[in-house]
Every structure is written in structure tokens, then in C-alpha cells.
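Hi X.,

You mentioned you wanted examples for the new student's onboarding notes, showing what a folding record looks like when two proteins sit in one file. Here is a clean example. The first protein comes first, with its sequence line followed by its C-alpha cells.
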Amino acid sequence: MVEGGTTCWLYPGSDLLKYWDDGSYVSTTESSASKVLYGNQDHSAVKSSVSGKYESKWGSGPKMRHAVGYGPPIYNMSTKVFYKKAGSIYIDCPSRISHGQYYNFIIDNPPLSFTCSSSSNISASKSSSSVNVSSTTCCSSGWFSIMYGSYQLAKYNLDVSAVNITGPASVKSNGEYYASISGCTNPSSNNFVWNVIPASGGSYTTYYFGNNNCNMGVNFSTTGYYNIRAELNTSCGTQYFYKTVYANPSKSGVSGFIYPNPVDDILYVDLDNIVNTQNKTTITYDVRLYDGQGNVVHKTSAKSGIIQFNVSNLPNGIYFIHIYDGISSTPDVNKVIVSH
């Protein structure tokens, strides 16, 4: 009573499980089974071509076709474990995962009971016919495997990377904003959907960029903070990537890149957008914050980037940002209100 494969000789008193648990067969449901093992683990039967019927032999007797629970009482026919031949296991998910995101890897043709093993930088746990996967460290290669007892049925290699939205922290004075997904080189296989969500809540706008969905470009018309969200739908579930930006399209010039205003704790000066607006890419800016009496309370210099001034300890009142470009004899002066 065999289905092919390696012959395994069994002797009186031997453990029949050495045949079932060598990785050739895996446990399954009755509807998917091709064999059944009975409770005392000393008798088995093969599913026949007749629905609901199995075939087996008892000792020197003839081969019989019988119901799944029929047989001599000494074999404890009421306790049954169903098996099927171990086939190829297909794992339906991308091999590149993002650190900090959680995935549900769908396992095609899994055994009824299996466990997971993984490399030290991957967390993998069984969930029905799928595996929940996340990375514990970034960024390197790793793996997880499907185990049946001590036997490895499938192994899946993963590449852990840091995926995020790259782009300026503020919107250009004309309302334009552009961002992209780091490391996204094949838009057609990723299918990012972009959302612009007001930080204050309420409805949001969804954007589709077709074959260029690794990048986005939108226009803002209302001042405020927004969450830029890139949404990636895969067979493993939905992943989200966020970036917060500040829009102040009602102002022109440098003032649109100094935010928030009024400010409570951190004041930002976006030199990147100032450089782009003024087309001054080689100079060093001297940025100073003065109080109403003309005292310098913060100062720094930089060629680019986003400058941060912590004003949480400053008294409420009117302050002034002076931005010197080293070319003009007078600075660009902008009023800032500190309000706690």
C-alpha cells in the first residue's frame, strides 16, 4: 500500500512514525488527505478512487476497501490523523521587506501543522496558513523557513531595507511639493498610492501616478501641516510610509520657508527651499533670531538643510529672523511670533 517514493521497512515493535515524519508526508484535513494513520500508530490506509473509501490490509488478509473508520478494534480506528504527500510550498510575497513594517506571507499548500524558523534579524510566526514576518534589525539579508517537525519544507530569503519618503519638510512658496520613495526602482512592481492628509484631521486626497508611482508631485493651496502617506498594497497586506510637511502657499519669498508661525517649541528655517528659490547654491547663510530688543537669542550658519531653533524657553512675543546670504548688504528679515 504505497504511493511511490522511498521504501521504509517496518518491523514488529518499530515506530511507524519514522515513515510519516521523515518529511515525505505532512498532516492535513480529511478532504485533502491521501492516507490516514490510526490511533495506535500501527495501521494505516490509502484513499481509494471511490469517494469516502480507503484501502488497507490486516495481516495476511486480503486488501480491503472500507470506510475511513472501519477496521479491527485493536487498531483504534476512531482516532485518526490524515496525511498528504509533501508537495512544493509556494510563498506569495516580495523578497524585499522594509524595516519597521509588518507582513503577512501567504503560504500555498502548507501542512496542517507547521512551525517557523528564521535568521536572527527576522521575526516569523505562524498564523493559520500564513506567516507573520517583520525585521528586528536593519539593514541586511535574512530568511525564514517552514518547518514540519525537524524537517525544513521551504526556505525564503529576504532583503531588509530602510524604505521611507524623501523630500523637503516644507512646501515651496508657490504651493508645489515633490517627494519620492527611497530605493524604489521598479514602479510597476510596487504600485504606490499617495495620500495627502491634513494633520488636523478630516478628508484627504488620493493621487495615482501610474508608471511613475515611486514619485509624487502635488500643489497645496491651504496653509497647515500635512501627512504625506505612500500606500503599498501587496498580497502580504498594506504598508504605509509617512512624512509630515508644512505648507504656507499664501506667503511668497523666504517667509514661506520659516514655520510654524506662530511657533510654540521648534522653529524651522528651510534653507533647501530658500536655496532653490534664490538659486544660490554655493553660499553660506547666516541665520539669526532676534528678540524685540535686538538681542540675538539663536544663531547658526549653513549652506543647506533645515535649521531648527528651540524657542520653548523664550517668552511670548514678537521675534525676528535675519537671514544673511553674504552677498546682499542687508538681511532678509521675517517676523516670528512665539506663543505658548
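Then the second protein repeats the pattern, sequence line and then C-alpha cells:
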Amino acid sequence: MSNRFAASRQGVEMSVRHASWVAITVVFTSVCLGQERSEIASASLPEMYFPPPGESLGMQSRRSPAEVGLSADFIDGLKPLVAGRWALWRNGYLVHVAGDFHTKGDVASLRKTWHALTVGAAIKQNKIPTVTERISVWAPGLQGVHAEATWWHVITQTSGFDYPYGPWPAYRPGEIWTYSDKNPRVLCYALARVYGKKDFHDEYADVVRQAYFDAIGLRGWRAVPRQDGIRFHFDLEDMGRLGLLILNRGRWAGREIIPQWFVEQLERKQTGGIGVNYDGPDDGKIDLDPKRFPEAPYGFMTWVNTDGEFYPGADRAWAWAAGAGGTRVLWSRNNGIVFAAFGADKKPSGNGIPQVIERSIISEQKRTAGSTGQPTGGKGWRQVISTGTAARSKWYRSWATVDAT
């Protein structure tokens, strides 16, 4: 047995005895305490701009970096870190586009975050009772210990569906984290059944339209069934809308689409006390050192900086969807940034995309109902949040129509 395997296996064995307790604790926190915490947190959100449905730069409200409290230094600073096209928004306002905004491409595993959000939408729509429901209710083909896996286990990639294999023993759900195509495959199948389809080959686009894609105005995207589940073809605009939905805690133009507690857990590390295997058998090779990352920096099918280890020195609120080819959507709830890219750097770094962007922040840009100035193009919903001393916030909606320039 190699030293690398022995060390990794030893870490798994040491953490297995704690795993079930950790999983139960995390789920209990998200379900029982998340809603109360969310109501208080929402009071600090700034005003957001929500583009109306459609595919056009004219639908976006464009601002210069200075108008949203940024220096322009990030534009040159990101060049070594992004080989392809990208776009950046702050509080929903489009600040910069590099390359083609509307060319669509397969976003590979970046899709996983959006599949996880579909679970949140199904909970909001009362189609799924809780993340702790066994997914075998909808995927009856799961047998044995695999039938014990819940929605939570699948969207945290702790289902154990790959095991046993090779020298690795069988693990119960919640005992080991492994990146695996089996998880999105089972997830897409189960979600298709939840929304009344035969399986994910049966017009799966209807599933995500009904879940939340139509609600946030996505147009022109594609859902393609593959052996590993559903792949999405998006452009930068699609990716920006999805990021804005998460940034705004699951609300779009004043309407809750995804429960806020679910969004907060999605972008927060869920894997404490759970062992890792970064070399799984089903497209499970992850370029992370188990000595540096003995617990996966992972939320609900989303990578996270909760422990400050992936992007040292950057805000720990950063989270991101990621796929092959450098497809990325990064966001931070604390600074109102959404960044979408094809061809972005993916390595842990002390000088990565989040750090470059944060160095360019020159003001917090807290907006109120009395803000002066209008968006410079398009029309959309602006959500204004009252941030007084009261714990509860008041929500207002106003339809802003402005001339494109």
C-alpha cells in the first residue's frame, strides 16, 4: 500500500466515527435554525438590480467601476488569471465584460450548483419535504446501504455511492466525501421524478424552468442529457443571473424562489469531520492535497472558502460553482460581487480572483431608496431593503424604466 494511500485512508478511518454526528448536526442547524438567522441577515443586504427576462446587453444595467465603489485595477489584475471571456457585476449592475457575452458553452461541472438549487426550489414549492428525506423515495433503484442516502448526502457528495471499490471498503452515507458523477446522475433522475417526469431524458428543461429558471428570466440556455446527468449550456449572462439569485439569498425582484436558509447552507462548508478521497473512480480526481485539505471545502455542490484555506486572506464568504475548462461563477455576499468566466484559474491561491477583486473595492456602496442616479441601460426590478435598527426588513419593489445609452 503506498504512503499516499495509507495517509489518505488513515485520515478517513479516523474521521468516520464522527461523521454521522456531524452530518446530523449540520442538517439540524440548516433546517431548524436557518430561517430565523436568515430574517436577521436580510436586513443588511444592499439594493439590487434585477435584469428583466431576455438575452441582451440592453437588459443589463451597466455602471463604471467607480459608480459601484471599485477601482478599475481589477481589469488588468485578472488578466493573468482568466484566459477566456468573463464578466463582473456588483449588486446586480454589470461593471465589465471581457470577450463575447452571449456565446454559449457546456459549463461542465459548474452545473452542479444549479442542480443543488433545484432541490432548494423543490423544497420551497413543497415538492420535497426536507433535505433529510431519503432520495430513494424518488430513486427506488438504490439498494442496500445506498438506499439510506438523503438529498443532503447527495448534494454534499457524501453519499458513498462509489463504495466499495478497489481497496476501499463500503461506507455509509455521510462517512466519506468523494467527487463523483454518480451523485448528479442520481440527483437529476430523482428531480425529474419529483417534477413528474419519467427520468432526466424526459424533457428535463421543463424541470428547471418550473423550479426557478423562468422566474429569473433565463432565455436561450440548453439542457442536454448525458450519462452523468444533465449538462447545461450557458453564456455569461445566464451565469450572472444565477449568481445574482444566490447573492440575493434566493430572492428575485422581491420574490423568494429558493429558501434563504438553503442558500446560506449551499455556500457554507458542510463536510466537517468527514473523511476525503480526492481520487474517486467516477470522474472523481480532484487536485487538492489531503494534508492541506483534510476536509473538502464544499457546501451544497458548491466550493467554499469557509475556512479561509482555498483563498487565504480573502473574505470567507466567497463561494463558487466550477467546471472543466475553467468555467466559474464566484460570488461573495459580503461585497455584492458576482464574477462569471470561461477559462478561469482554478487553483487554491493567496493571489486568486477573489483577492484581486477585493483589492479593488473602495467603498461598500450601500444603497437606499433615496439613492440618486439611474441605471444606464435596460429596465428591471430594483429591490430596496430598509436597514434600520429593527431586526425585520421591509421589502419594496419598483419598476425602473430607463433609456439605453
